[in-house]
Amino acid sequence: MNAPTRTKPFIGNGSVFASEQPIQDGLSQTLKNITKSRFRESQNPPIQSVRPGHFTLQGCGVVMTIEASVEFSVSTWQQPLPPPPSPDRARMLDLVVEIVTSLGDHRLRIGIDGLTASGKSSLGHELTQHLARRGRPVFRASLDDFKRPWSERHRYDRVSGEGYYRNAFDYDAACKLVLDPSDPLADGIVSLCSIDPITQVDHSAVKAVMPANGVLIVDGVFAFRPEINAYWDLRVWVDIDAELSVRRGIERDAEMYGGADQAETLHRDRYLASEVLYMSEVDPRSFVDVIVNNTDFDRPRLIRFPG
User: Please, what is the end-to-end C-alpha distance for the chain in angstroms?
Assistant: First the structure.
């Protein structure tokens, strides 16, 4: 089975979820209304404390029921929930969750990296579910929500492979808004989104409070670049080969970008080219703590883990 494809986003509210509050697939009008509501919220955002609760997330025909607190980014750029795991995948997830919980009860920051379309976001959602079931408050973010605004694109190249690698992401914002304040000795007041990559709305003023035992899970390409690598308590690499990355990316994004040819050009000339440069300069696979071979989504293989 292939990794879940990007379809309509599931919509979170970026706050503590009320009991049994559903998260519906985003119909366009609903998405517009939620975006407007979030924009109003960002003008005078409350700081929202995380409280234990019981709630349900629903997306892509999958229902996730969680008996703990989860905070999602307010971004409209969201991956769908993955399907329930196969037995092999469930065993892998249990092992990774054991690794996370062994790190302690203090605030933790987990980075998930890998090639485009490797299944980073799906793994992040799955770990969120499993950790929340164990009573850990989880804060879910993506580096896609910490990119430079398109209004500044005339200042630099971010469309070539090298330009995307060098210039697309705003690591200063990621550090200031979420990575620094989630440190165990910091105040825990985090922003899970800087600039919405779809609407370009600035959500950096939308705050949430990460409790002392909270777990921050962040997925994204280039997560282990030197600018932010030191922040992670656990580094997870989702491993697939380059051609599978391109094929999955085409399947996922063909409709979004106007056809398979356009999607292939984007994935080969920008995303894969940038990731080849990253692998050459940083070689993240050589130092990460966990490597999950995700070639077969239903039969992943844990090929590196601590201990």
Answer: 30
